[in-house]
Design a protein that fits this description.
homodimer, alpha/beta, TIM Barrel, two-stranded antiparallel ribbon, globular
């Protein structure tokens, strides 16, 4: 029997020793020299980044929006890009879908089935109806948005109901409901207090932490909080690697930046005493 | 200068006299006799439904999930289906996207730009960062999820913060922030109390009301609550029209069912005294 998505993530973490997640968000207006602002340009950039910068990454996270912008041609580019992700490198599709019933089942058919994602990001606003079809569609991981990294994240996520903020309620709900390790949480590095509080509130689930680098979050704090008792966490870096150079040396620059980030995150995890788990504990046997 | 999406919706409402929204959710396992459970089958079904059942509808709502399930081939079918929607019939893409910054901008490029939607559905969980890029991308309408129609809708939407449930907070936030009439709310007919309370709390925004028929909501109550002071509301019917017959007469059956629904909803609006606006007031000048 082949390994599950969670086992693949654990193996990869053991192999690379770092929670670095390579974020692929190819914007046509931000391509390096020589690439056209077209679907061909973003595909070339995405595949080139994965080729150059993924050897030291624990996972790759592809943001569906940047492909979908080009409609069916963009989705075809997404299919090729996903197929190009090396075996053994877990591939998360950052789709933030949130629908119910047969609609959720059809999104799961797209992302988990058709695109064979190892993990997806999902919105909690509609409750478990929006999550369970993705768990039923295979053995892939699900990262539920708890506290996002954007300026207006607190608009609803920070509202306090029954004495606790909504993002904490979401985290506890996910942690109590799904204890298999397959359900993690998205918690932005731009909210360091919430990040620390949430890690304390729910020791089990892995965190997928966006928002370091360009968005201003502290990468080391993110690395210390990312690992859960049930699964290894991920710290996403997109622009810090993808935009390391805007020149023709972008692949080499991305590889070098990935190396720096991977090492830095790895050291932050190893030297962490605050983290509820040590890297060795979550690396799998 | 051509009419805006809101003007097109008002004109259409005046023309058909009913808030009926024709929901297109083609599931490959629920196609009528003679259609294969493939992307070709769902496209044929979707286009056939629009052709047969849209003449009496105020809008058509296409659920992106059912096309996306087939990847790029599904998106190509979605592009053709959308292009096939008659001029003058507002087309809402039910996508429930919820992302931020350039990601939201790219989803808007896909739905508002590439697919030329007159309206989209969006999740509020990330705050205004997830909404504004869609308003900036054109003149299209945005329907923000407030109270959805599924069983676990209340999990977070009904939590009470500062004395009001989250779904009401979402509704007030949208109504206070965007007063142009371009931002409406999704409020499920399966929660009749919330539907009535929300209509009272925010008289301005139009409601897009799913959940009547198969999901059990009361169509007449939905019709009475749907219209806002700023824009005409919509009551979505999907299965009640699409699955009117599973035989080869599905197009004729769908046309007949749409006629019954359109008339019923039209009468409910006309005879409503509880509604804060009368059909005549929101039909445009």
């Amino acid at each position: 029997m082949s390994a599950s998505a969670l086992e693949r993530l654990r193996s990869r973490r053991t192999a690379v020793g770092s929670p670095l997640c390579l974020g692929i968000d190819p914007h046509p207006d931000r391509l390096p020299e020589g690439l056209p602002p077209t679907v061909h340009g973003i595909e070339t950039f995405a595949r080139g980044l994965i080729e150059a910068a993924s050897p030291l990454a624990c996972a790759v996270k592809i943001n569906v929006a940047f492909f979908e912008a080009f409609g069916s041609a963009g989705w075809a580019a997404l299919e090729r890009t996903r197929a190009d992700v090396p075996r053994g490198l877990p591939c998360i599709l950052d789709a933030k879908r949130g629908d119910i019933e047969t609609s959720a089942e059809r999104y799961a058919a797209a992302l988990i089935g058709h695109l064979d994602a190892d993990g997806v990001t999902l919105s909690p606003y509609l409750g478990e109806d929006a999550i369970e079809p993705f768990l039923a569609a295979g053995d892939g991981l699900v990262y539920v948005l708890a506290r996002t990294s954007n300026p207006s994240a607190g608009r609803f996520q920070s509202l306090v109901a029954d004495g606790e903020p909504i993002h904490e309620r979401v985290a506890r709900w996910a942690a109590e409901r799904w204890t298999s390790g397959r359900v993690g949480l998205v918690v932005g590095a731009t909210a360091p207090e919430e990040l620390a509080t949430l890690r304390e509130a729910v020791p089990g689930p892995a965190f997928l932490v966006p928002g370091v680098g360009a968005q201003g979050g502290d990468a080391e704090a993110a690395a210390r909080a990312a690992d859960g008792a049930w699964a290894p966490g991920l710290v996403n870096v997109s622009r810090g690697i993808a935009l390391a150079s805007s020149g023709r040396d972008w692949q080499a620059a991305a590889a070098a930046a990935a190396s720096v980030h991977s090492t830095g995150l790895s050291e932050a995890v190893l030297h962490s005493t605050a983290s509820p788990v040590r890297a060795a504990d979550i690396g799998g046997s």
